[in-house]
Amino acid sequence: MKLPEDLGIEISNDDGLAVITVEGEIDIASSPALGAALDEVDAGRHVVLDLGGVEFMDSSGLKVLIGQTVRRGEAGGSLYVRNASVAVRRVVEITGLNQFFFEVESRRSGV
Fold first, then answer.
1. Fewer CB near the terminus (10 Å): N or C of the chain?
2. How many angstroms from the chain centroid is the CA of residue 11?
3. What pTM does this model have?
4. Closest CA relative to residue 79, chosen from 50, 40, 109
5. What gap in Å lies between CA 57 and CA 40, rounded to an integer?
């Protein structure tokens, strides 16, 4: 899938964890690309999603995060969010979903 111009996604591995680093805007136009990148990683794996470079996220981005969290949980994996930018924190807190996502400060925190 071709990435929208305002979104950058990098997938790497770090001590067995899949790390997906996202930069730019996650909106209705770019959220399918984020979902596709997450789908590239086996659902049974633990994924750390680094959202420190996200400047904007709307409800379509939340939908991807919720769907991936549920899907991975059912398969024995997990989705952890780290480095959530102010824009991401704002939309998560406004919607009351801040307790739904697990945040880690580093890979050494037990993920």
1. N
2. 11
3. 0.84
4. 50
5. 21
Q: Can you tell me the distance from the alpha carbon of 102 to that of 92, in angstroms, rounded to the nearest whole number?
A: 12
Q: List the 78-82 sheet strands across, edge first.
A: 7-14, 17-26, 46-57, 78-82, 102-103
Residues ≥6 apart with Cβ < 8 Å to 44: 72, 75, 76, 77
Q: d(Cα 58, Cα 18) in Å, to the nearest integer? A: 24
pLDDT digits (tens, 9 = 90+) for 64-76: 999 999 999 999 9
- The Cα–Cα gap between 51 and 90 comes to 13
Residue pair 102/109 in contact by the 8 Å Cβ criterion: no
